[in-house]
Amino acid sequence: MHPFGRLPSAPDCRVLRPIKPQRLRPGSFHLPVADLTFYQLQTSTVILLMLAFYGGTFLLSTRIGRKNENVDGYMTSSGKVGFGVSAASMTATWIWAASFYAAATSGYKYGISGPIHYGLWGALMILFIYPFGRRFREVAPEAHTLAEIMHARHGRSSQLILAGSNIAGSVISLMANFTAAGALVAMLSPLDFVHGVMIAGIGTLSYTLWSGFRASIMTDVIQVAAMLGAAALIIPLVFFSAGGIDAVAQGWDRLSAEQASMFSKTAFLEQGAPYFVAVLAYAIGNQTIAQRLFAVREDLIKPTFITATISYGATVIGLGMLGVVALMVGIEPSGGDHNNLIPQMASSYLGPVMIGVFFIMVIGSLSSTADSDLSALSSIMMTDIYGKNLARGRVNPATMLWVGRITMIVATTAGLIFASFRIDILSLLVFVGALWGSIVFPVIASFYWKKVNNRAFTTAVLVSLVAFTVARFELLPIVGTYAVVLELFATVGAGVVLGLMTFGFFGKRAGLTVGALAILALAPFTFGFLRDYPVLLSSLNAYGVSTVVCTLLSVRSDEDFDFDLIAKRVRNFDDRDQAGPADDAGAPPVLAREATR
């Protein structure tokens, strides 16, 4: 049901509804909140916009669809995507509807530093990916998933851990994007939340189903152009319609001291630091990102990710500031749901035409990420479940394609069901990212350190997940010796995060030095302090525990892995099909061109 009940239609495509005024403190600026109105598009207008968007993307996808689809093209476009398409796809995938909504929520909760913490750290994490991405491509130039490389590096258990975490993460991502669609449609039209969820889910599936990843990246080009163009228009229009500089100056009294500070301690500890840690895990563990690493031409990885970094940061920080404006002018989130802030601001301050533009912007952003999730899930099921486990080395390309398409249908259904729970998107993003923190060090170490074995990888991840869960949900009281132990591992985790970032750009020696110095420098501040911030504490524990366990077990192992084996074991499936079945180690027979290496 719409949060304001069923609203009547109007001949000018708009419905006027008052926003509930917020009680003001004496002496504060009194914007005429009660006079603000919701501009709602008619049902027919919304349906036409949705049909135009999804119909257009579907027609575009048919231009690249083929009756006899190539398996590798379906998953990674055979690793030959150029700069323009790759940069657009990376930007569109990272800028999703949840980014808009969560950034605005952060601005509304934490003030002017909230969107900066959200957008800046997310942007830097895109930049952080590319040095490790080049290593991934170096050792496995024909890979389809990170889990596939873990199978070649360690074996089945490590592969399934990584594949399983990505399946869970992508389904949750689908749920978040469909939730965003439902909130958008419910706010800007007489339709219900469930209608928006259903249309977005079915529409995204329609154009992604046949051509998979190739359809995803091709439509991303159109979607990112629409998103960035719309954002460039909408952000200043909403700002000035809300009162511009005068509203900011007079509404400043609404902000607390922390909300008015560019360097808010509360914003950093409750939003910035946990999100910084979370998006680092997204960068390494998310298959939608890895899929684009394996698809772009290897020499174009760096410019692709630098471009996406700049585009993401500017757009998301700008849209997040709308949450700050909402706080300043006294708007309360409709129905108490912070996911409604962005569509509520648009409906309050934009006219019908620009509401339509805004509508397409958000639909494009959520669809670009949802189709990426569908493509990622299909690749995981095709490669890691069917190709590596069920097929046992005898892959049937036709069967593999149907596995991918059936996966998309099942995943869309699951996403639609879970979206009905309407979970707060910002909390969900931080939780999932922190959960993925358990795999970051074991994955990266597996690409550089010969002594990491399957036992070290698996044990480290599982122990870390247990430690994270216990701390995150406070299953044990965080007091006494237990609190000290958690703070110890969290301090190590902070050093690991900073050390890994330094290692990616400046090498092993610099990474170890920065990591060690960070632990020593932070220790006096973290003990007795982090226990009051369980979200940050548990997130850092995911890194710290997995790093310590993986390191201890690896130091004692006799493993001396030859990284050249990965390229021999991870092959394009078309080549593999032509060359014959794989051997017992998971590697196909060495082809002539491998023998010449």
TrEMBL record:
Keyword Transport applies: yes
Biased composition (Low complexity): 579-589
Transmembrane portions of the chain: 38-60, 81-104, 116-133, 160-187, 193-210, 222-242, 305-329, 349-370, 398-419, 425-449, 456-473, 479-503, 510-530, 536-555
Annotated CDD domains: SLC5sbd_DUR3
Keywords recorded for this protein, A-Z: Cell membrane, Ion transport, Membrane, Sodium, Sodium transport, Symport, Transmembrane, Transmembrane helix, Transport
Subcellular location(s) per record: Cell membrane
Family: Belongs to the sodium:solute symporter (SSF) (TC 2.A.21) family.
Name recorded for this polypeptide: Sodium:proline symporter
Gene source species: Luteimonas terricola
